[in-house]
């Protein structure tokens, strides 16, 4: 196991990202959701599009805090790399198990291979190996190569940046086929928002987190802030011809969201670690993967047993008459997060932390 140096602000940001995941993933009624709580349909950006990039950014920060001292202390690389790969594979395996349960219990026509946990596991392995093998200068070079290389593929090797016909869609169709998130049996077209090529953009976000984690470990929050501002500005400028797109995880999107995550990290570090304010979300952060997987199982069982609709209608229905369908949906999502906040709070008080 890789035990990270615990910084309360990092745990809090990780936890807030997980809580936000639960909020937007469990609205009760997908037909009535406030616009900011939905992902952009294709090109564009909503607050919800920040959540996954924030989490992957924190994966990189945590890798810097956990591995940096060991590498600088002269630890043998091979055992560290083995531990990184093993843990990443466990995260990927957990994602596959959850998808298998959904496929079985909900009678889904196809099994999805990739997904959120699988992407986290892949990025965890990659950024962990980078942390062990490359120093800061090499990490910066890698980040630039990822951004420029992926941008070149999208702009010169992809026929279009629309979903159908894009290089991402063609690769997902050729490699994943019916095992992708979206599969059209009639046309044979597949696409996955956590697909193969877009992993390059997600990895860039994670490497940016690794670099900012190194700055934070050296007690340089101002450098983290300036890095974040610079990344966000470049991402905003780049979006004028390479649009923000979460499903493609375009380089402009990676820099924009990763930059905002760095600004949030710098602010949280000063607010929590230096000024001593409460680390809201920390309990979620200490049981991040467990809370995500547990919430997934909870939603899955409610849907598979047929309890979801009665629960939503009978308990939250009267509220809908007052606040409207979208307000009812939000109330369910908030209640769902509150239940899991209570669970992770109890686990934290008991000192129980589930590590994959």
TrEMBL record:
<keyword id="KW-0808">Transferase</keyword>
<dbReference type="GO" id="GO:0016746">
    <property type="term" value="F:acyltransferase activity"/>
</dbReference>
<keyword id="KW-1133">Transmembrane helix</keyword>
<feature type="transmembrane region" description="Helical">
    <location>
        <begin position="223"/>
        <end position="241"/>
    </location>
</feature>
<keyword id="KW-0812">Transmembrane</keyword>
<dbReference type="Pfam" id="PF07786">
    <property type="entry name" value="HGSNAT_cat"/>
</dbReference>
<feature type="transmembrane region" description="Helical">
    <location>
        <begin position="112"/>
        <end position="132"/>
    </location>
</feature>
<feature type="transmembrane region" description="Helical">
    <location>
        <begin position="329"/>
        <end position="347"/>
    </location>
</feature>
<dbReference type="InterPro" id="IPR012429">
    <property type="entry name" value="HGSNAT_cat"/>
</dbReference>
<feature type="transmembrane region" description="Helical">
    <location>
        <begin position="253"/>
        <end position="272"/>
    </location>
</feature>
<keyword id="KW-0472">Membrane</keyword>
<feature type="transmembrane region" description="Helical">
    <location>
        <begin position="12"/>
        <end position="30"/>
    </location>
</feature>
<feature type="transmembrane region" description="Helical">
    <location>
        <begin position="139"/>
        <end position="157"/>
    </location>
</feature>
<feature type="transmembrane region" description="Helical">
    <location>
        <begin position="50"/>
        <end position="67"/>
    </location>
</feature>
<protein>
    <submittedName>
        <fullName>Acyltransferase</fullName>
    </submittedName>
</protein>
<keyword id="KW-0012">Acyltransferase</keyword>
<feature type="transmembrane region" description="Helical">
    <location>
        <begin position="196"/>
        <end position="216"/>
    </location>
</feature>
<feature type="transmembrane region" description="Helical">
    <location>
        <begin position="88"/>
        <end position="106"/>
    </location>
</feature>
<feature type="domain" description="Heparan-alpha-glucosaminide N-acetyltransferase catalytic">
    <location>
        <begin position="6"/>
        <end position="150"/>
    </location>
</feature>
<feature type="transmembrane region" description="Helical">
    <location>
        <begin position="284"/>
        <end position="309"/>
    </location>
</feature>
């Amino acid at each position: 196991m890789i035990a990270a140096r615990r910084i309360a602000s990092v745990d809090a940001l990780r936890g807030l990202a997980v809580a936000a995941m639960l909020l937007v993933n469990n609205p009760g009624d997908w037909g009535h959701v406030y616009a900011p709580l939905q992902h952009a349909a294709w090109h564009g950006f909503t607050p919800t599009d920040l959540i996954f990039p924030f989490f992957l950014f924190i994966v990189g920060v945590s890798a810097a805090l956990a591995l940096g001292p060991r590498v600088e202390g002269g630890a043998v690389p091979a055992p560290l790399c083995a531990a990184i790969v093993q843990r990443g594979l466990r995260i990927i395996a957990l994602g596959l198990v959850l998808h298998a349960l959904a496929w079985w219990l909900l009678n889904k026509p196809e099994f999805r291979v990739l997904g959120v946990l699988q992407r986290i596991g892949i990025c965890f392995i990659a950024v962990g190996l980078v942390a062990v093998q490359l120093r800061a200068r090499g990490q910066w070079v890698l980040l630039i190569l990822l951004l420029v290389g992926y941008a070149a593929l999208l702009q010169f090797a992809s026929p279009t940046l629309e979903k159908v016909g894009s290089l991402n869609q063609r690769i997902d169709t050729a490699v994943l086929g019916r095992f992708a998130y979206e599969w059209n049996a009639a046309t044979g077209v597949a696409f996955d928002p956590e697909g193969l090529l877009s992993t390059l953009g997600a990895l860039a976000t994670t490497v940016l987190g690794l670099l900012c984690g190194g700055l934070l470990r050296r007690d340089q929050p101002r450098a983290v802030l300036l890095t974040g501002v610079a990344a966000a500005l470049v991402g905003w400028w780049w979006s004028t011809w390479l649009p923000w797109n979460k499903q493609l995880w375009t380089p402009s999107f990676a820099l924009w969201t990763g930059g905002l995550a760095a600004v949030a990290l710098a602010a949280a570090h000063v607010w929590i670690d230096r000024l001593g304010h409460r680390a809201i979300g920390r309990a979620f952060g200490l049981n991040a993967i467990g809370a995500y997987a547990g919430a997934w199982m909870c939603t899955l069982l409610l849907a598979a047993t047929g309890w979801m609709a009665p629960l939503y209608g009978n308990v939250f229905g009267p509220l809908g008459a007052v606040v409207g369908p979208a307000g009812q949906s939000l109330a369910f999502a908030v209640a769902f997060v509150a239940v899991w906040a209570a669970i992770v709070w109890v686990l934290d008080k008991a000192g129980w932390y589930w590590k994959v």
